């Protein structure tokens, strides 16, 4: 490809507000441009890399028997409204209407569309199992699109869905997908970890996430320092270690606490530790209010709470709703003397509190010497808090934290999704049975961003040989020097004949600009035709190591073949 004929708009400076390394370098090197907030154009270099990623993914999917399909981006809103994902995606939907005022969405996911297709087209058990996949653009109206392609409003994803009549074939596909994702990330040269993840709370569901460790990642991982345990903090298990105390239960007392609302202020006022405080929040759960309790040093985990309650919707109550329900401010909420229809949900650690402090549901007052079960009833105990660093891990050791970027997620959903949607198959006895299902997602544009973050130095990219947009950057120092241009043209023809992908910098620019752009673009090999062109000798630079060689044109192909065939 002649560089003058393509579009590679490199930059010397980028906006100061851009923080992510990948975003900065993709802009500088002319791979992407922002169209609007969270939406990007993939320019020719980026598109070539994405095409290579997609080709590899197609090969891995076909190797395990998945069949490619293409589903529409524009979907009726009704397809999503009754799905398990509706409440998760509702605020992020891009909605449109047609001329007949029918409501549509730009697909944030294709799970529902795939299920409907299966429901409409396959009824007999003889047609199962089947795995269908696609590579498709998804749309989510992120509240704060940030970090370039790492969290954008329009993104490229591979999603696959499998359908089964028994657990054995579902388990087999789940294992195959795990291996396929591992192969893909390994081929890309990415260090990854597989961690436990939220599958939506169904009893028969199971999920794994594929995480690239990164300090700027938005996934917090809880892991054991002594075992292989690792889980997304959303579902990381808290080991319940109930403690018994022989401390005398003191009479409950109501204390005036003017302008004392936060846990820190309460502890200072009563001269107690956070472990002796009962933190209470009001949640709206499937339209009903409930008081949720955790110890003062703990944080409520919304994902766990939703799963424990098998709730469809879950949100914190607003200040006005709290005022109407309890007639107090947020800082004075407590579990004592509640309206009769308000349930109390408590974390396991609450059961061990003795003579604690809790809000009195009255502005300016708290209770002290509060004891669970004696002073208030608890409808349900559960693991509903975030695990903390230093907590015991479920299978040994203690919990530590690190961050990472999720690039893939696989879920073994069992019958839970299809049962709720009444999607069945006809068995050999002509009886309707629920379909078992698996869901498997891989973020292609996010993987591209992760690669851009990892494979770079201060001067530009260092793309892996097999996924670089081109193999070789061919640069004549001076296109007005006949010997330079003639040898460059000759080498371009030879290199392309031997099936190398070549970017030929035929621009009328200074050699300094060409070298700077070459480092930014980051192709594995730079071949410079310069001062020894009349002798048939070129300068070769290996981008990843900085090594420089002078090779005669007759030996160039042999050396390049050796380099590109090596690991």
From TrEMBL:
GO terms for molecular function: aminoacyl-tRNA deacylase activity; ATP binding; catalytic activity, acting on a protein; proline-tRNA ligase activity; transferase activity. Catalyzes the attachment of proline to tRNA(Pro) in a two-step reaction: proline is first activated by ATP to form Pro-AMP and then transferred to the acceptor end of tRNA(Pro). As ProRS can inadvertently accommodate and process non-cognate amino acids such as alanine and cysteine, to avoid such errors it has two additional distinct editing activities against alanine. One activity is designated as 'pretransfer' editing and involves the tRNA(Pro)-independent hydrolysis of activated Ala-AMP. It comes from Ureibacillus yapensis. This is Proline--tRNA ligase. It is an enzyme of class 6 (ligase). The keyword Protein biosynthesis applies. Keywords: Aminoacyl-tRNA synthetase, ATP-binding, Cytoplasm, Ligase, Nucleotide-binding, Protein biosynthesis. SUPFAM superfamilies: Class II aaRS ABD-related, Class II aaRS and biotin synthetases, YbaK/ProRS associated domain. It is found in: Cytoplasm.
